[in-house]
Amino acid sequence: MKRTLILILSSLLLMLVIPAQADNYKSVFVTSQLYDRGQMIWRSDVGTIFVLSNAGNVLRFPVATYGALPPSPFRTAPWGKVPPLMGFGKVWANHDEVRADLGWAIISEVGRDSTMVEHANGSIYMQDQQARLLRVKPNNTWEYVDSIPDDTTPQNNPKIKIFNVNPHSVVAGDTISVTWTVEHVDSVIVEFYDASPRNDILYAIKADQPVSGSLDFTVPEHILHGMTVTLHGANYQDLPDGRRTTTRVVTANETLKLGEGEPQEPQPTQTWAVFQQYEHGMMIWRRDTGTITVLFDDNSVGSYPLTYYAYLSDAPRDIDVPEGKVLPTNGFGRVWAYLDDVRERLGWATGNETGYTLTITTIDHHLIEYTLPEDRKVFISPGTWRY
């Protein structure tokens, strides 16, 4: 009995002196969406949706609470707004307090890999749509933070030690320099975006960079709003089928203001693209970014980056296809087969994929022109589109 008591007391002492450590530290694929007065973030590992209002409050919805809810009946939105879809749409449409706190979505749902740290005290650290680090507190409030505290950071975790971008403003035709050192990753990826809130104007991706290095980049002549430089530390994993996956495990951003004398008149950019017509809309894939854009007949827009659909299952080949219709394949097939809402709203493809040269012209901060095959054009705003 005395020996048992000593063991119990020893265990309690050990529990008291061991510092609190992270319960879990990993990279998790998340999707996020910005709203008038906040944002939603969905964790793919557990399915929980976090509703983060700009007032600092947090609502949590485990998948068990929203999975069986009816889809959102809101298929249209005010001009410049976006009707939330899928899980976000279910939570937003079926909970009055969420709609009151957030208002309408202002951009489409976007996916990314996020650092995810769950601390023993109940705090959760994760990254938002723009890779900013935030902390969800145990009392269901949240805040942006500069770093993860040391007592939650295990050894050998991915960490950006140096990330410098010079100069801090950009002028068309000038050169900017980027230097970095990232620890405990396989490689580094550097991306250059126009500093638009949508972040869908991608100028260049520099992949497979060394973990410590530098590069120079010439600012495009048609830059519009300044530039966002994004640095990713990435790890690789070789799959049995020979493919290699890339997981962005740590990220940092630097936004450069537009220098005097800008912006230049917007110039069209071109990239190879693939188009497919459906019963109730169309899909467009861009080679430069890998993004699939879905234009529904109700004039709403869905946007699915490569990181969202790259590792989804292909559309099954053994299903019955109605006569005169086409089974979507490749990336289109993955989005169509995996996302019930997209499949139900688009219907079947009515023709095969068509490759063509897509011309993208930024009209202004809120309007982009896309060309289609056969000299057609569409104009896309955040969440909406029109011919």
Please provide a written account of the structure.
The protein is mainly beta and 387 residues long. The protein has helices spanning 2-17, 63-66, 86-94, 96-102, 306-309, 330-338, 340-346, and strands at residues 22-35, 38-43, 49-53, 58-61, 110-119, 124-127, 133-136, 142-144, 159-166, 169-170, 175-183, 187-194, 202-209, 212-218, 227-238, 244-258, 269-278, 281-286, 292-296, 301-304, 354-364, 367-372, 376-381, 384-386. The strands form four sheets. Strands 4-3-2-1-5-6-7-8 form an eight-stranded antiparallel sheet. β17 (269-278) and β18 form a beta hairpin. α3 packs across α4 and α6 (330-338) crosses α7. The longest helix has 16 residues, at 2-17. Residues 1-23 have low confidence and may be disordered.
Any key phrases for this structure?
7 helices; disordered N terminus; 3 domains; globular; 44% strand; mainly beta; 387 residues; 8-stranded antiparallel β-sheet; 14% helix; Immunoglobulin-like
Helix and strand layout, with pairings?
Blueprint: H1 2-17, E1 22-35, E2 38-43, E3 49-53, E4 58-61, H2 63-66, H3 86-94, H4 96-102, E5 110-119, E6 124-127, E7 133-136, E8 142-144, E9 159-166, E10 169-170, E11 175-183, E12 187-194, E13 202-209, E14 212-218, E15 227-238, E16 244-258, E17 269-278, E18 281-286, E19 292-296, E20 301-304, H5 306-309, H6 330-338, H7 340-346, E21 354-364, E22 367-372, E23 376-381, E24 384-386
Parallel strand pairs: 10-16
Antiparallel strand pairs: 1-2, 1-5, 2-3, 3-4, 5-6, 6-7, 7-8, 9-11, 11-14, 12-13, 12-15, 15-16, 17-18, 17-21, 18-19, 19-20, 21-22, 22-23, 23-24
Helix pairs in contact: 3-4, 6-7
